[in-house]
Amino acid sequence: TPSGGLFVVPSDSAKRGILRRPPMIARLSGTVAASRPDEVVVDVGGVGYRVHIPLSTFYKVVNASGVVSLHVHTHVREDAIQLFGFWTDEERTAFQRLIAVSGIGPRIALAVLSGIGVDDTERAVREGARSVPERIPGIGRKTAERVLLELRDRPTTRRGRGAGAPSASTAAILSAAVAGPDADAVSALVHLGYSD
Predict the structure, then answer these.
(1) In Å, what is the CA distance from 33 to each residue of 42, 48, 65, 144, 193?
(2) Band (18; pLDDT cuts 50, 70, 90)
(3) E-strand spans in 45-119?
(4) Whole-number Å distance between alpha carbons of 16 and 38
(5) Contact at 8 Å (CB) between 38 and 107?
(6) Assign residue 70 a region: left if phi > 0, alpha if psi is -120 to 50, beta otherwise?
(7) What is the DSSP string of 147-161?
(8) Which of 15, 53, 140, 167 has the most neighbouring CB atoms within 10 Å?
(9) pTM score, two decimals?
(10) What does the longest C-alpha to C-alpha distance in the chain come to?
């Protein structure tokens, strides 16, 4: 510069306002200092991290002894940095897929994982069972349709697992969602773990 100061040429990413950084916190291991059904405080070397969790993770955390490890999604907003923790990487991936859907924020994504779970959510996507995500408060008909459509377009990265049996309530909804004379056969196959 004319004044002799340092002149920095911004990168193409900076010019477009894109920051390409890995997540700030991807995993936490420590002892549980406090827990509620929707959050846990993990003490890591004397620092307590408040982590929002689904019910499935809460049940695992309260029954664990000693050091626990959570897979973490760091959610950065203009006014806050929030941590969302999951017992398995599979749950974290499902959460990240959900928040990528237009109109689904972290709170609703956690509610989906708490109320339906990963397997039943994926089964609802495969079967197009709109009534399954509609059970979650905050998800209406249009949002449920968008969730099913957008998740169907984003294939899951799960490998090497069987589909698992649906919960009783989800199985009933899936059976009702399949129309026609083959409904009983489809329901039986779904209960046995078969998919498309």
Answers:
(1) 6, 7, 12, 36, 39
(2) low
(3) 47-52, 68-76, 81-86
(4) 37
(5) no
(6) beta
(7) HHHHHHHS-----S-
(8) 53
(9) 0.67
(10) 82
